[in-house]
Amino acid sequence: ELEGYFNDNTFLADLDQALPNGSRRRLINNDRKRIVIMVTKEAHCLGDILVKAFDGTLDVEIAAVVGNYDTLQNLTEKFDIPYHHVSHEGLSREEHEAQLLRTVQQYDPNYVVLAKYMRILTPNFVAAFPHKIINIHHSFLPAFIGAKPYQQAFERGVKIIGATAHFVTNDLDEGPIITQNVIPVDHTFSATEMAKSGRDVEKSVLSKALGLVLDDRVFVHGNRTVIL
Asked: Which positions fall inside the Formyl transferase N-terminal domain (predicted)?
């Protein structure tokens, strides 16, 4: 950790001279991070982040919540956080995302968190926030990519279900994994019961991943992450 005043470019040039060839380095600002959360209708992941930001468990500024439905507006506003309802109805995917992008970018977030946002983002949106969009997927990736993973898990007869937090890329549910966890299930679980049980895993995995990212402990290397 460095304190005081110095020229960033000069410091990095000196550091490059001292490090082995091929080394990667970056300067990390200790300022509090700002996020925008994107949601659809499910409340459990959003609610968990709101509470943890409120009580200080997560040291983060939630600049706004953006949803394609207004379902979670009342919950968000209980925490005095602005909510933007950007409906997708009657719009093409590109038109809707152009509105989303303008809404999110006005807050200049360090990260965008998809707290059960259930629409696939276009490459244009992803390119605006490279390795800055964090998604929670309700399966233990790489198993059950895409839609209805609990139904897929039920049909396959799995004995564990899980959740994965990862950075978003243009490859659906295949971005660098930040953290994962699982819980046991058995033959008595329906797909609906798996989904209910999985909610606690989803919210805990997303909050853990967000905490690691906010603490600057996550480094992307190719399609993998290194967690310090």
From this structure: 33-210
